[in-house]
Write a structure and sequence with these properties.
The protein has 9 helices and 7 strands; from the N terminus they run αααβαβαββαβαααββ. The chain is of the alpha/beta class. Helix 7 packs antiparallel against helix 8 (196-206). It is globular and about 45 Å long. The protein starts with 14 loop residues before the first helix and ends with a strand.
Length: 243
């Protein structure tokens, strides 16, 4: 299991409760700040997720840790009849609902407040499930992955987009400097919550990636697991399926 990093070191709340509070706090400027922090490259990564999902022609898609709905909105470019965005942060969902309404997509995307480790869906419901920058926020990674496997249809596709750590010089050294020094500073300048972007940086640095996360997926019952490093390894797209 990955090291359990929490946003607020002195808090008595569970990680799940802390993460929900943190994202509620930063929801108003999350989208803009993300574009700055990633230099906009995260948009390219999400489009690659879209391409992988589109190939499977899913009818129902679940986007977990949907936040303000960026990936859920992008998934409307598939032929899916229904897209559900699930998140534990009411603040992030509120921003997402407005974005979706402004794009006249409310009939196609449903935003739900809910827990990824205890989802209100029947077994084998979705042909495709996505998580962008969310799995490292799970309080219990194995429990979350088991739930995802449960609601994924056999032969369905599961795609994770998550930060990872470059391993080659000079990208490794540059990434460490950026995440430890620059990213938290940007967060403090633009966010009301000084701890939030420190947590996001720290949690990314210790979360398993590459073959380590591949093995966690396999141990939780997924098959056909593949890791696809992006942009010198600062992010990785993982694809998996279900028997």
């Amino acid at each position: 299991m990955p090291k359990n990093i929490t946003p607020y070191k002195e808090s008595s709340l569970s990680k799940k409760e802390q993460v929900a509070h943190m994202f509620d706090t930063i929801s108003g400027n999350y989208d803009g700040l993300n574009r700055v922090i990633s230099f906009g490259i995260d948009i390219k990564w999400r489009k690659k997720v879209l391409a992988l999902v589109s190939i499977t022609n899913p009818k129902k898609i679940l986007d977990i840790a949907t936040g303000t709905g960026d990936l859920a909105i992008l998934m409307t470019e598939t032929k899916a009849e229904k897209i559900i965005g699930l998140d534990i942060s009411a603040g992030m969902l509120e921003v997402g609902v407005k974005k979706i309404a402004n794009k006249n997509l409310s009939d196609k995307i449903e935003m739900l407040l809910g827990d990824s480790e205890n989802m209100p869906f029947e077994d084998n419901t979705f042909e495709a499930i996505t998580v962008a920058f969310g799995v490292r926020n799970f309080e219990n990674l194995d429990k979350g992955l088991t739930e995802i496997l449960r609601v994924l249809k056999p032969n369905g596709i599961f795609v994770i987009l998550e930060t990872s750590n470059p391993t080659k010089f000079p990208f490794k050294q540059g990434y460490v400097f950026y995440t430890k020094n620059i990213l938290p500073l940007i967060g403090k300048l633009f966010s009301k919550d000084n701890a939030a972007y420190g947590y996001l940086s720290e949690s990314a640095s210790v979360f398993p990636f590459g073959e380590a996360l591949n093995n966690i997926l396999r141990n939780n019952g997924f098959i056909d697991v593949v890791a696809l490093p992006q942009t010198f390894g600062v992010a990785t797209i993982y694809t998996a399926s279900k028997k």
